[in-house]
Amino acid sequence: AGKPLVLHVVEKCRLFSNEVLLILRRNADPEKYLQVVEPKARLVHDESESRAPLVGISSGLAAVKNSYTAVFSCDLPFLNKRASELLFSEAEGVDAAIPVWPDGTLEPLHSVYRVDPSLKAARESLANGELSNYDMIRRLKRVKEIPVERFRSIDPNLHSFFNVNSPEELEEAEALSRRP
Predict the structure, then answer these.
(1) Using an 8 Å Cβ cutoff, are 66 and 114 in contact?
(2) What is the mean pLDDT of each run of 10 residues along the chain (180 residues)?
(3) Residue 104 in contact with residue 153, Cβ under 8 Å?
(4) From CA 90, how far away is CA 172, in angstroms rounded?
(5) What does residue 77 show for φ and ψ, rounded to 5 degrees?
């Protein structure tokens, strides 16, 4: 829709948060991203060379100033403010609020985490050579799984969970963005 995919995500996050971090690979050129997202997001480089998403989550958790934070992948152009607010409200008093599909699949990159226990869990997982987001989640004591169906009243077609991983999905996202 005429702008970089990551900017869609950053702009949506700015609707419900005053602190938006964009986590970059350790060797990524920040200038490329600054041109796109500044001043809407603060850039943070990964703490290690590993390209596992958990390294990005750990790096972001270490840099965030709030006690709870949302973690979103950079390919979710239709994030929904109200759906994000629902996640934050469900996260109160637990270590994480994570959407779950009917088949049991979790959405760890579309979730809200309590920073301190999540950072500890992420670092323990990485120290043990465990690179999956699920390794961190297994270490959390109180995880609230939110059925994806609960989001339908806010997002009837669940577009906020639509991610772009292929040219075909990018084409579909372009078509969805043109709909009223």
Answers:
(1) no
(2) 91 93 93 89 91 93 96 95 96 98 97 98 96 97 98 96 96 90
(3) no
(4) 31
(5) -70, -15
